[in-house]
Amino acid sequence: MSDRASSPIVQLTLARFREFIREPEAVFWTFVFPIVVSLALAMAFPSRADRDVLVGLQPGAAADSLRATLTRGGGITVREVRPEDQRHALREGVVNVVVIPTDPPTYRFDPAREESRFARAVVDDVLKRAAGRQDPWTAREEPQEVAGSRYIDWFVPGLIGMGLMSNSMWGIGFGIVQARMRKLLKRMIASPMRKREYLLAQLIARLAFLPAEVLVPLLFAVIAFGMPVNGSVGAIVATTLVGTLSFGAIGLLLATRARTIEAISGLMNLVMLPMWILSGVFFSSANFPDAVQPIIHALPLTAQIDALRAIILDGATLADVRSELAVLGVWGVVPFFAALHLFSWK
Amino acid sequence: MVDHAATEPAVSCERLRKAYGSVIAVADVTLTVHRGECFGLLGPNGAGKTTTIEILEGLLTPDSGAVEVLGLRWGHHEAALRQRLGIQLQETQLADKLTVEETLRLFRSFYTRGRTVDDLLQMVELVNKRTSRVGKLSGGQKQRLSLACALAGDPDLLFLDEPTTGLDPHSRRQLWGLLDQFRARGRTIVMTTHHMEEAEFLCDRVAIVDHGRIIAVGTPKELIARLGEPRVITHHGTLEDVFMALTGRHLRDE
Question: B98–A7: do the CB atoms touch at under 8 Å?
Answer without folding.
Answer: no
